[in-house]
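re: the backbone from monday

yeah here it is again, tokenized this time
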């Protein structure tokens, strides 16, 4: 049996379901996708104009948490920006102590990196970075899980140095500010603000 789906609900234009029996509902999927599109469009333009890496992997989980509202604390500046800042510092400390100026890009592109000292350096750096980040986030109550990807990016030599550290924190700050002050008010006004992703 095919159940009728209201066209306005399918397009994500209603905050609540018109038919509680409906199985097919795209409200959150539509709204979160619009949010993420706007986030990364702006960051992509900044990267294009500046020629700097304002797009990097750990922005993905942060953007998802912010766009879907899956974790209420994920939307706060203290958690999002603070968590990534803690992660950057922890990653830089670990890489300075154990990274030995190697990069996962280079090491794992070699024909046979197995049992090499460089893998051990990366292993140690990544492990210590995660330990420091976990401890620091719990102590500071930033608790932004997406930042754990940031600390590994730095600790594995994928991004590093003061300039990259500033870019990472700035990009995260732009992501949060853009969502909180621009996208979220527009979402409320035009009806594409997502509900809690865990609600169903």
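seq for it, each position gets an aa:
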């Amino acid at each position: 049996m095919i159940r009728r789906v209201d066209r306005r609900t399918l397009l994500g234009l209603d905050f609540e379901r018109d038919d509680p029996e409906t199985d097919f509902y795209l409200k959150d999927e539509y709204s979160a996708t619009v949010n993420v599109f706007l986030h990364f469009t702006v960051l992509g333009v900044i990267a294009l104009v500046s020629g700097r890496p304002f797009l990097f992997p750990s922005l993905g989980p942060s953007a998802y948490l912010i766009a879907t509202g899956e974790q209420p604390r994920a939307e706060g500046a203290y958690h999002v920006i603070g968590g990534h800042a803690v992660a950057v510092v922890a990653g830089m400390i670990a890489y300075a102590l154990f990274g030995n100026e190697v990069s996962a890009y280079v090491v794992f592109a070699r024909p046979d990196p197995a049992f090499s000292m460089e893998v051990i350096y990366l292993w140690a750096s990544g492990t210590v970075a995660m330990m420091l980040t976990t401890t620091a986030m719990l102590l500071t109550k930033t608790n932004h899980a997406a930042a754990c990807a940031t600390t590994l990016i730095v600790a594995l030599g994928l991004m590093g140095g003061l300039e990259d550290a500033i870019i990472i924190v700035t990009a995260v700050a732009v992501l949060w500010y853009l969502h909180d002050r621009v996208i979220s008010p527009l979402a409320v006004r035009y009806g594409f603000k997502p509900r809690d992703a865990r609600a169903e």
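Confidence is low (pLDDT under 50) at residues 1-26. The CA atoms of residues 138 and 144 lie 10 Å apart.
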